[in-house]
Amino acid sequence: MKSTIEIVPAVLEQTENELKKQFDRLAHLAPRMQMDYIDNDFARGDTVDWHILLDLPEIYHHLLLELHILARDPLPIALAGAQAGFATVIVPVEEMKETDIDMMKRIAESAELMLCINLETDIHALHPYRDVAHGVTVMTIIPGRQGNPFQPAGLAKVDALRALGYRGILEIDGSVNETTIEAIITHDVNRLVVGSALTRVSQPDEVYKKLLGKISEVSLL
Questions:
Q1: What is the SS3 assignment for the chain?
Q2: What InterPro entries does the entry give (predicted)?
């Protein structure tokens, strides 16, 4: 029997007002939620300033909050997020250097540290940080905004990492919905980040239940 896969509702908004609206709509669904901070220098899709996000762990203290940072200099933001009470901080491996390991260790003392890997990046880029990070967020879209199309090539990274014996957390992020989830959950993953499939519908509770149902079907196999 497979271990249960966790759904992580995700919010990506450009204004503080919209961010709070989406949080209030989705915060009751799951014990864990994610929000994105995107720097326009890194990817298209500027979001709410990260300083504003630092207030969220205190407001939503009953949740395990993930902060996904897509920025050219992500570690200072990750450290601030960890110190503010985020349960998980996610940084792009493409922006890491081996000289960053000491700071990464400092972050990992306060929060779960995850490395995000893009579609075009070889998994060997993760190797220098294997003993620092708690897990890997595998992108299955080109990052920048919610709703970008699903890229199944990202799932090959999951299989390759598991084949190499990697036992850390593997999280899928990108276009997870009722159509794509069946293919995704046949792979050995722990978490599914779900954004637009929940934020862009009038009945997110119903969608969430359907996604859980599909996971339950596979877990029983």
A1: CCCCCEEEEEECCCCHHHHHHHHHHHCCCCCEEEEEEECCCCCCCCCCCHHHHCCHHHHCCCCEEEEEEECCCHHHHHHHHHHHCCCEEEEEHHHCCHHHHHHHHHHHCCCEEEEEECCCCCHHHHHHHCCCCCEEEEECCCCCCCCCCCCCHHHHHHHHHHHCCCCCEEEEECCCCCCCHHHHCCCCCCEEEECHHHHCCCCHHHHHHHHHHHHHHHHCC
A2: Aldolase_TIM (IPR013785), Ribul_P_3_epim-like (IPR000056), RibuloseP-bd_barrel (IPR011060)
Q: At what angle do helices 101-108 and 74-84 cross, to 10 degrees?
A: 20
Residue 203 neighbours by CB under 8 Å, 6+ apart = none
- In CATH, what class is 6-219? alpha beta
pTM: 0.94
Domain boundaries in the chain? 6-219
Phi/psi region, residue 175 (left: phi>0; alpha: psi -120 to 50; beta: rest), is left
Rounded Cα gap, residues 169 and 40, in angstroms: 28
Q: In this structure, are residues 48 and 149 in contact, taking their beta carbons and an 8 Å threshold?
A: no
